[in-house]
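Late entry, evening session. Most of the bench is empty. Finally got around to the prediction I had been postponing all week. Sequence below, unchanged from the version circulated by S.P.
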Amino acid sequence: MLKGKRVILGICGSIAAYKAAKLTRLLVKAGAEVQVVMTPDATAFITPLTLATLSDRPVLTEYFDKQTGEWSKHVHLALWADLLLIAPASANTLAKLAHGLCDNLLCAIYLSAKCPTFVAPAMDLDMWAHPSTQHNIKTLVGYGNTLIPPAQGELASGLVGVGRLAEPEDMVRFIEQSFHHEGPPVLPLAGKRALVTAGPTYEAIDPVRFIGNHSSGKMGYAIAETLQQLGAQVTLVSGPTHLDTPLGVQQIDVISANDMLQACLEVFTDTDITVMSAAVADYTPIVVANKKIKKNDTDLTLALTKTTDILATLGAKKQPHQQLIGFALETDNELAHAKAKLKKKNLDFIVLNSMQDKGAGFASNTNKVTIIDREENQISFPLKSKKEVAADICQLIVDSLSEG
């Protein structure tokens, strides 16, 4: 998909700049013409010679050559490009781009570019989480730019969290997807932030045992992937699963219901769309043994207490501009229970599964749902793949936002 495409690769001052060598090589291998543009600070982390060798083009860092006076022609470069990729994008550069500052060649090219622009941030977790950085990201996405979210993992500071530059292979796949469409992709959720929960929660009994359920997480992961493909910036809060993080989605891994509650509370205030598809435990042990409970000849009795109802908690905090969608998995009196949950928890939609329907529910690759809105209008869908069900749910979200 990148064959013959002209790509400007912008590199900022970040330790993650070392990944730009592999990224350049992969872009060239995919058939792209790559022009590397570095900020002055970036040259301290990786040499222009390395990138010039890999791209087979001189690397540009300044507006003009101070020895010859040759001008870099930032307007011509911007018009030449089919794609502008800024990776790594530092917090400093993100702030400049969001506010139209233009004190280096890369910023000047960005302000002149008419092609799609992708930004792949890289920074420490506190810098990424800072409200000013998040505001700048939201501003840039609102301008029509595409975010390649940072990954979670070990950072240069030694801390562990969100802020790692996405891997070069993932960035190339992400970009190739954008060229599947002829012309600019239609992204109805561009500029929107979404929160999705998925999978089960595990409530510890002792260090080796837990109370759990059979949720695979497939439904929630499919919804997160679909929302991202529609342009939303998606955070996926996931209980234990064996699934891969959808491309372009920021994932927060949790274990227990309380872990999921805390992760959702941190994100929810800034979201426009929240889809709670996780199968959260209703009860958790009052006491968790610090050693493995030994088997004996007597019965074992566990004292349980209710977990905090995450959906109801978010429903109580929901603002008028926010959409909150819940799931109901029922075995009897399905519609009555779902409608009661819809009202009690202040939801905009509820997605009803019935365990009576063959092929629906946990673990399978298919699902059969009925979606009910605040006015109790119902839409029932036939048995479909979970990816198709995700598309149906997300289309209703898009339609509802456009009507609002």
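Two things to note before I forget:
DSSP finds 13 helices and 21 strands in the chain.
The CA atoms of residues 32 and 341 lie 52 Å apart.
Will write this up properly tomorrow.
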